[in-house]
Amino acid sequence: MEQQGILVADKDTAFLKEVADHFTGAGYHVETTNSAVRVLSNILNKQAPVVLLGSDFDKKINLIELVRLLKKCNRHLAVILVSDEASLPIVKRIRKEGIFYYAMRSITPEETDGLNHVVKCGLRVV
Predict the structure, then answer these.
(1) Coil, strand or helix at 106
(2) How far apart are alpha carbons 78 and 48 in whole angstroms?
(3) 101 and 91 in contact (C-beta within 8 Å)?
(4) What does the alpha-carbon distance between residue 103 and residue 125 come to, in Å, rounded to a whole number?
(5) Dihedral (CA of 105, 5, 50, 111) sign
(6) Can you tell me the distance from the alpha carbon of 85 to that of 28, in angstroms, rounded to the nearest whole number?
(7) pLDDT tens-digit readout, 101-113
(8) What pLDDT does 60 receive?
(9) CA–CA dist 126, 124 (Å, integer)
C-alpha cells in the first residue's frame, strides 16, 4: 500500500518535529516547511492531498490569500488550519475560502490523536 502524503507548514520547528514524528509513526509520508513558497511549490508539483497549515507561519503572505491560492491550485486539497488562538472573525473568513478543518494547536498526545483523525477524514474526502 502506498503511503499517503501530508504537508505540515509552520514556523515552530518543535511543533513541526512533533507532528512529523507522530504522522510518520502513523504511516504517513510527511514533508515539513516554514515557507509559503515551498507550500505552493509542493501543491503545484506533487498535489499533496492534505496540508496542516500553521496560522501565522509565514508573514510574507496573508493567511487568507495563501489558502485562496492553495485552493485555486488544487480545489480538492484538504487544508487543516492549526492555530494558537480562536479568533471568530478570522475563522469565519478563512472558512469561506474552503478550509477543511480548524484545529487548535496540539499540546497533548490526545489532541495530536484528534488531529490524526481529522487528517484521515481529509484523505477520504479528496
Answers:
(1) coil
(2) 9
(3) no
(4) 17
(5) negative
(6) 27
(7) 888 776 666 667 7
(8) 81
(9) 6
